[in-house]
Amino acid sequence: MIVAFSVTPLGVGEDVGEYVADAVRVVRESGLPHRTDAMFTSVEGEWDEVMDVVKRAVAAVEERAPRVSLVLKADIRPGVTDGLTSKVETVERHLSG
Fold first, then answer.
1. I need a surface site. Which of 12, 52, 62, 63 has the fewest CB within 10 A?
2. Distance (Å, rounded) from C-alpha 57 to C-alpha 72?
């Protein structure tokens, strides 16, 4: 499964990069395949391990922010691995030919 999620601290002002970095640090330390862009962090793995990472990422932000918003989108497709790479490669293949 691939989960794309965004954790946003609320009540801490406009500059939230430092708080978001706490969440991304949790994802990176998880060892699971992941990507971070301007809007979401995507992480790939089995249901329990991915959801554990999301939960710990939220908790990391929650330690310093009075309120946290979580947006989550999941692609649940049993048997598929390396979806973070293969899905993008498929689109790129269609774009180039």
1. 63
2. 12
Domain ranges of the chain: 2-96
Q: 35 with 84: CB under 8 angstroms?
A: yes
Residues 36-57: tens digit of each pLDDT: 999 999 999 999 999 999 999 9
Cα angle value 46/64/58 (rounded, 5°): 15
pTM above 0.85, yes or no: yes
| E strand intervals along 26-96 | 34-36, 41-44, 67-75
The CATH number, out of the four listed (3.40.50.1580, 3.30.1360.40, 3.30.70.930, 3.60.40.10), of the domain defined by the range 2-96: 3.30.70.930
